[in-house]
Write a structure and sequence with these properties.
Rossmann fold; seven-stranded parallel β-sheet; binds 2'deoxy-thymidine-5'-diphospho-alpha-D-glucose; two-stranded parallel ribbon; lyase; dTDP-glucose 4,6-dehydratase; EC 4.2.1.46; 13 helices; binds nicotinamide-adenine-dinucleotide
Length: 360
């Protein structure tokens, strides 16, 4: 078995579904079910006995130790985190609690379990930490993409908390010999992406006839990767990655936010035209910028390609088409996650931006 943390979230649930469809091993899925965790993402494996869901916190070291002793997983794949940059600006404490203290507790539990293992289980055990390209900070227009040797320069409470967790993982390898692997990935998109993030938010708002909010001038650049390509990369690193190493994962798809939004509008115009006519582009609205907004991210993914023979399968064009179609086919999923808490977040984040913009 493997233990996955955060397997009811966006990337974690895609990973669990992919894993169970491709591997014979089972998954223990430990998730706190915060606003971002959603068991309906895992509906397809509800009757699969290889999937054991545990509702709990990675910060509960005793619980994690108990799970490790009981199920004896050969690896931990650690996704659980607070993941939204804007939320980290409004309330950083939860990010420190889960991303830093939670990862620390998880590492302690993993060390305690791994130390007591005997060969060959001890040699084969892996702790794979899923992290982000945001730890490297922001690139200028002509800077080369982030490589694994770039200095850490996190700029938001979210990226600072992820950077801290990366450093803890590194330290547990160097100090205690814990067999760790770290991946730093660029922006993901695809099914089950929570509609507080740019791509699913734009699709949901477009369909609901609401404004499509563009922060600042919309010329910030992100490097987009289809989520199933990320899952395949993680499986490859888990299988063949060198211990203590970090691997950057990206899609070689740098796009300005405004271009991404235009693409979404154009696809929606084709697949689900507005009843009143005209293009969804007419709903685009410029709002106040994100404080400390990183201008550009881009990943140099040559190391994982060279060493582990991984390359993305999807282009941005194929991946974004599949994504829009998934959201059109799963409107009930979107409606279900747009609960009371979601509405409060939308008011908090966007009403303030509107008034800041009007004052400017
Ligand atoms: P998400 O917010 O969609 O899901 C996070 C999951 O973690 C949720 O199911 C939530 O319930 C769970 N969780 C939160 N706190 C927990 C705790 N204390 N104990 C147990 N479970 C907890 O996040 P995501 O977008 O799927 O990201 C997953 C991981 O990948 C994160 O570590 C993130 O930093 C990293 N990452 C994300 C992206 C991206 O574009 N989304 C890119 C690179 C890296
Ligand atoms: O780079 C990897 C990171 O990508 C992950 O580590 C994070 O967990 C993930 O959330 C994502 O972070 P971003 O901040 O890049 O993603 P988000 O979808 O929130 O925003 C993408 C870009 O779109 C960013 O430049 C901000 C902008 N944006 C976002 C929202 C929600 C808008 O212009 N309007 C919006 O309403």
């Amino acid at each position: 078995m493997i233990l996955v943390t955060g397997g009811a979230g966006f990337i974690g649930s895609n990973f669990v579904l992919d894993w169970l469809s491709q591997e014979s091993e089972g998954v223990i899925n430990l998730d706190k079910l915060t606003y971002a965790g959603n068991l309906s993402n895992l509906e397809a494996v509800r009757n699969d006995e290889r999937h054991v869901f545990v509702h709990g916190d990675i910060g509960d070291q005793a619980l994690v130790e108990k799970l490790l002793v009981e199920h004896k997983p050969r690896a931990i794949v650690h996704f659980a985190a607070e993941s939204h940059v804007d939320r980290s600006i409004h309330g950083p404490a939860a990010f420190i609690e889960t991303n830093v203290n939670g990862t620390f507790a998880l590492l302690e539990a993993a060390k305690s379990y791994w130390t007591k293992l005997e060969a060959p289980e001890r040699t084969e055990f892996r702790f794979l930490h899923v992290s982000t390209d945001e730890v490297y900070g922001s690139l200028g227009p002509s800077d080369p993409p982030f490589s694994e040797t770039n200095a850490y320069e996190p700029n938001s409470p979210y990226s600072a908390s992820k950077a801290a967790s990366d450093h803890l993982v590194r330290a547990y390898h160097h100090t205690y010999g814990l067999p760790t692997l770290t991946t730093n990935c660029s922006n993901n998109y695809g099914p089950f992406h929570f509609p507080e993030k740019l791509i699913p938010l734009i699709i949901a708002n477009a369909r609901a006839g609401k404004p499509l909010p563009i922060y600042g001038d919309g010329q910030q650049i992100r490097d987009w990767l289809y989520v199933k390509d990320h899952c395949a990369a993680i499986r490859r690193v888990l299988d063949s990655g060198r211990l203590g190493e970090t691997y950057n994962i990206g899609g070689w798809n740098e796009k300005a936010n405004l271009d991404v939004v235009h693409t979404l509008c154009d696809i929606l115009d084709q697949l689900a035209p507005r009843q009143q006519g005209g293009s969804y582009r007419e709903q685009i609205t410029y709002v106040a910028d994100r404080p400390g907004h990183d201008r550009r991210y881009a990943i140099d993914a040559r190391k994982i390609e060279r060493e582990l023979r991984w390359k993305p399968v999807e282009t941005f064009e194929t991946g974004i088409g599949k994504t829009v179609q998934w959201y059109l086919d799963n409107t009930q999923w979107v409606q279900n996650v747009q609960s009371g808490d979601y509405m409060k977040w939308m008011e908090r984040n966007y009403d303030q931006r509107d008034s800041e913009r009007k004052q400017a």
